[in-house]
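JOB MANIFEST
job_type = single_chain_structure
chain_count = 1
residues = 693
[input]
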Amino acid sequence: MATQDFLVELGTEELPPKALKPLSDAFTRGISQGLTDAGIAFGTVETFAAPRRLAVRVRDLADAQPDKPVEKRGPAVKAAFDDAGNPTRALTGFATSLGVTPDQLDTMETDKGAWVVYRTVEQGKPTVELMPELVEQSLAALPIPKRMRWGAHRTEFVRPVHWVVLLYGNKVIDSPIMGLTPGNKTRGHRFHCPKTLIVPTPDDYEVVLKQEGFVLADFAERREQIRAGVAELAEREAGGKAVIDEDLLDEVTALNEWPVPLMGRFEDRFLEVPAEALISSMKEHQKYFHVVAADGEMLPLFITVANIDSKDPAQVISGNEKVIRPRLSDAAFFYETDRKSRLEDRIDRLKPIVFQEKLGSLYDKSVRVAALASKIADAIGSDPALAERAAMLAKTDLVTEMVLEFTDLQGIMGQYYASHDGEAADVAKALNEQYMPRFAGDDLPTTLTGCAIAIADRLDSLVGLFGINQPPSGTRDPFALRRASLGVLRIIIERELPLDLQTCCEWAAENFTVLTESDTAATVVDYMLERFRAHYEELGIGAEVYLAVHARRPTRPLDFDRRVKAVEAFRQLPEAQALAGANKRVSNILTKQGGDDIGESVDTGLLQDAAEKALAEQVAHQAEQVLPLFEQGDYASALRSLASLREPVDNFFDQVMVMAEDDATRNNRLALLNRLRNLFLRVADISLLPTAG
């Protein structure tokens, strides 16, 4: 089958920069999936995205769908012909519905008799006929929360669409797209090349735009050119290093078709303002990259990326310097004004700010968190007084001028202002660390006071919202309780804190008087332990390992983590599957024979067979070996030791009948199995692991 390259380009007004990459990726996926669903063979799919265009190129696209054999079954042969062999109405009706005559039908034999059947080959449709609808479907499915209309058009899209390119090889597919007739003409840079350009074939697309149109259509190429240009400019002009935030880089890439990095300067006096405030102002409002010296200190420089290769770049730089000056002046004014009032003087200003209607204000939350943080600090060997002080100040920077203007600086400015007020170093640092980790993989609090505040703040939200029956549901999680749960688990595990979730949640519940749900603490603990499942899957640990540990419901996260890692290591041992199978068998036997009523006291005088004596001896020996390990939390060593029970366990089941006729013998053997199983249950229910065979 013949193939050609295919190209579709949608030319628009400037697309929303933060939406450009997701729109481009979704458009590409839609085209690929549409071709796959249509059964059309194709090669590589390439993506292009710039501020005024979305494009997809498909290499080696077949010129038609493959022919498809079609078989339709009609009436049974017995019902298709009368006694004289003439077609019945059933047969003629079937033939007529297909537009054929009875003599064009075949018969087929099945184990249920003979049937009339129609066989033909459905010819595949030409690709050029299918692509317009496929493109329209892909555009309709794009993740656009709010579409707009323009002019007299009834067409809707995220921005007005002005031109469409639709090429198969060198042939234009001229079926309407988005209310426009496609062609082979694109448009260049709005200022450098404000005219139409002919794209002879899909292969010429990005070359024409780059060489004639001053447009780098490939998002990835443009992104790397900006990265390299910004880094090189910082080093060449200032001997410094440009700090390139990946999200900002994506946004700047989406704003520029022909990127040209330029360096500007701001007044040295602004360096007295915390660097984070300057960076936030430059990044959020102006999309500038900041520059640091070799020692990491911020320099009074910024790099902007212009969407034009100016003949007088100094004018462009001067314009940007004029724009950034009032922004930085505002930051300096806010910083100076905020420091005139102490954070503790702002505590009462939290009273009118509602945290949650039933759970009170931010002041109420601060009081609760202070009480909880004090207990947590004491439990982890920190200073309760420092934790309580930090918790009462924790939200006060939310009412400062700086944070009201730059909300992403919450906590960061709190630390600066607390230090200025002369608060203890741990208290000041905790005001920033309370929000850690802010996202998956983020840094954790480094101080114990910070850990106490971060945990207490999250647990207060969890217990409070669950306690008034407002847990997360489906994708709705307005208070980010899933993230809060994972944050608590990470802090406790990675900082190796000896905290019990059940105890901490009970402490949190004591601070409320409005909870309506019963046993809220246990509900929250169950919810948090369930978050472990996804956490371990991301680490490559199977769900069965998590479930084996979860069955024992250990409520200390550090202990839970050690068990999981021990079971994962045990699962790799050659004895693991056989012992998991044996535990499953033991569990089934014990459940049928009374379960929890069965003790584990073994009378050695009642042991008869050599195999049961050997198992009893080994179980007793292992108990002496592993019980101290359990007390130390060394589950990995304990399970490695228990793995040696495989052979005596296998021999026991091969040679001993558990359900002996004599009651005493039978009960003694059940007690032996119960003692065996309870050793493993000190870690996890390994009967839930995959078994041999």
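[summary]
The mean pLDDT is 93.
The first helix runs from residue 17 to 38.
exit_status = 0
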